[in-house]
Write a structure and sequence with these properties.
The structure holds two protein chains of two kinds.
Chain A: E1 5-7, E2 10-13, E3 19-24, E4 31-38, E5 42-50, E6 53-56, E7 65-71, E8 74-79, E9 88-95, E10 104-105, E11 109-113
Chain B: E1 4-6, E2 11-14, E3 19-25, E4 32-38, E5 44-50, E6 55-57, E7 60-65, E8 70-75, E9 84-91, E10 96-98, E11 102-107
Parallel strand pairs in B: 2-11
Antiparallel strand pairs in B: 1-3, 3-8, 4-5, 4-9, 6-7, 7-8, 9-10, 9-11
Classes of the chains: A mainly beta, B mainly beta.
Chain lengths: ~110, ~110
C-alpha cells in the first residue's frame, strides 16, 4: 500500500531551536508539496518541487524556512530558528505528473513551539 | 477577495438528509477542480474530481459552473460517517489553490 511517510508525527520544541521535518514521497511520484495547516489560515502551500527542483517556495518565510530534496526519496523542511507562531500541522504530499492529478498526503507533523 | 472561497460552516444536518456545498473561485483561467475530504486530525484525501459535464459517485455529485465560477458538491442520504471537512481545490495550472474547507456534522 503506497503512501507518503512523514516523520516525526509530533514535535514539541522550544522557541529558537531548529526543527527538521522529513517526507518520503510515494515511489515514482515526481511532484512533492509542503503545506502548513492552522485553524486560522487553513491549508497554505509553502513549497513544491518537480523532479527534485524547487518550482515555487513563495509561500515560505525565507528567513527561517528552507525546503530541499536531497534525493527523489526524501524531502525535508527545516525551520531555524523556530518561533511559537510556527506551531501548526505540516503536511507533505506527492503526486505524479501535472497539477490535475491526485495529491496524496502524509499524515502530517504536528509541531508545537513553546 | 480570496482566490477560492467556501462557507466554513459548520453545517449541522440530520442523518439521511441531502446537503450541498458551494465553492467559488476568482480566476476564470482555472483548469481543473477537486473535492477533498479531511477528517478531524487526519490528512486530506481526494473525494472526487469535478468534470465540466458534472459527475456522480454513489451518493456524491459534483458540478462545475464555469460561467458563474463555482463548483458544488451534493451529498444525498447523508451518513454519520460523512461528518468531516470538505475542501475545494482549484488547479490554476501553476499551483493548486485550496479553500479553507466547509465543516459538515451529521447528527443521528
Amino acid at each position: 500500500d503506497a503512501r507518503v511517510t512523514q516523520t516525526p508525527r509530533d514535535k514539541v520544541t522550544e522557541m529558537g531551536q531548529e526543527v527538521t521535518m522529513r517526507c518520503q514521497p510515494i515511489l515514482g511520484h515526481n511532484t512533492v508539496f509542503w503545506y502548513r495547516q492552522t485553524m486560522m489560515q487553513g491549508l497554505e502551500l509553502l513549497a513544491y518541487f518537480r523532479n527534485r527542483a524547487p518550482l515555487d517556495d513563495s509561500g515560505m518565510p525565507k528567513d527561517r524556512f528552507s525546503a530541499e530534496m536531497p534525493d527523489a526519496t526524501l524531502a525535508t523542511l527545516k525551520i531555524q530558528p523556530s518561533e511559537p507562531r510556527d506551531s501548526a500541522v505540516y503536511f507533505c504530499a506527492s503526486a505524479l505528473g501535472q497539477m490535475n492529478t491526485e495529491a496524496f498526503f502524509g499524515q502530517g507533523t504536528r509541531l508545537t513551539v513553546v | 477577495r480570496k482566490e477560492v472561497e467556501q462557507d466554513p460552516g459548520p453545517f449541522n444536518v440530520p442523518e439521511g438528509a441531502t446537503v450541498a456545498f458551494n465553492c467559488t473561485y476568482s480566476n476564470s483561467a482555472s483548469q481543473s477542480f477537486f473535492w477533498y475530504r479531511q477528517d478531524c486530525r487526519k490528512e486530506p484525501k481526494l473525494l472526487m474530481s469535478v468534470y465540466s459535464s458534472g459527475n456522480e459517485d454513489g451518493r456524491f455529485t459534483a458540478q462545475l459552473n464555469r460561467a458563474s465560477q463555482y463548483i458544488s458538491l451534493l451529498i444525498r442520504d447523508s451518513k454519520l460517517s460523512d461528518s468531516a471537512t470538505y475542501l475545494c481545490v482549484v488547479n490554476m495550472g501553476y499551483q493548486l489553490i485550496w479553500g479553507a474547507g466547509t465543516k459538515l456534522i451529521i447528527k443521528p
